[in-house]
């Protein structure tokens, strides 16, 4: 059985990665002042944050159209694939995975499997890359998802946002949390709740410097006793220089960890806003 690997644009893969590993990337729409854009197609990170600052209304995100999914699956079938494993961003952020699951029996003689990554951005991207490598080696969907489940159990992440207003307006946090964050001028540290998988406030720190230092403490505590190599990712919105500086400091402090730099594209940037930074980590996918 040949397995196609599909993901959405919030995995933030490079074109070289998706091309080399035959990964299908479905763009997620972003609506800015009534105009719909496709993330990664006609709306890139470099221009998005300028548009975000100039937008008259708060941007919103949508789902890929059902017809687009069906067209993709039909094409994959015609290309000789028997199955598609679709790795989507967390179901607590988007309903795209649920939509895919509902289409599982729509294409005759072609199986569709929806996999909830329970996260997003480049951390999800690492799961997608691992899945694609395994698929190219002939692994089954069951074997791939078993590996993804094992990797997903090792993942943790903390986001430091400059302002909670975007998350509040997008419905990801309560208005009360946004109000407190604005009044006290704090830099909230957020994470995915391990039980509900919703984005929740973890701590509120009085400056970005202190918030990043606290995130480093959490990272150090989490990786101290693990018996496997760690792959970590520093993620930024429109503050690349600050992210590069932080990653250099982290690499000097934790030389045994492999770090990479990634970004919040338009879909996730819509909710986190400008000035956000994050640190995510997992077991190195190459070690499993």
UniProtKB/TrEMBL annotation:
Record keywords, A-Z: Lipid-binding
Coiled-coil annotated spans: none
Pfam families per record: DegV
Entry annotated with the keyword Amino-acid biosynthesis: no
UniProt superkingdom: Bacteria
One function term, GO molecular function aspect: lipid binding
Residues spanning the membrane: none
This protein's record includes keyword Hydrolase: no
InterPro entries linked to this entry: DegV, DegV_C, DegV_domain_contain
PANTHER family: DEGV DOMAIN-CONTAINING PROTEIN DR_1986-RELATED (PTHR33434), FATTY ACID-BINDING PROTEIN TM_1468 (PTHR33434:SF2)
Function as written in the Swiss-Prot or TrEMBL entry: May bind long-chain fatty acids, such as palmitate, and may play a role in lipid transport or fatty acid metabolism.
Protein name listed in UniProt: DegV family protein
